[in-house]
Request: fold
Amino acid sequence: MKLINTIIQILKDLLIFFLNFFSNQYRKYHFYYNNVIIKSIDKVSKDTIIWKYTYIWYNTNITKTIIWNYCSIANNVSIWMWEHDLNKISTNSIFYKNQYKELTKNDCIIWNDVWIWVDSIIRRWVTIWNWAIIWANSFVNKNIPPYAIAVWNPAKIIKYRFNKEKIEKIKKSKWWKYNKIKAEQIINKL
Reply:
């Protein structure tokens, strides 16, 4: 059984490789790998790294981002190309030698179990730390700390999800490092 699972994983890897190789700069298909779900109408750049158990829902655009485990990214979220150089004579990207590289200078990092709700915009250089929530229609232009709930435009922290005692228990559990079955068992005990 283990051999069959290994062969299936290798075939999936090859399929993903060929789909990426023969497609353009963005992934434009249903993408199920490492329990990651990307809907076919999303645009996720090939230089975006997505770890495990994450879903990206409809009509979302993501470039050059690192997304860790168990993240939930809703409809119409944009982590897109923003880096127009305000110090240049013209900000129009037609004057850039490499438009994509210039417009995506800084990575965006989304840590474990982050929920980004519908219609939110995340700036390029932002880090959203573990277990944070970005409320619907928010514009995030600064880092969001762990367990924070951020809302509005620009996003402001309105509260934290749990008290310090509960946060310490969650941190010690390290549930986000496990597969779904083991993670669920740990979460249910918390």
About this structure: The chain has one domain: 2-189. Confidence is low (pLDDT under 50) at residues 25-30. Residues 2-189 form a domain with the UDP N-Acetylglucosamine Acyltransferase; domain 1 fold (CATH 2.160.10.10). The chain is about 25% helix and 25% strand.
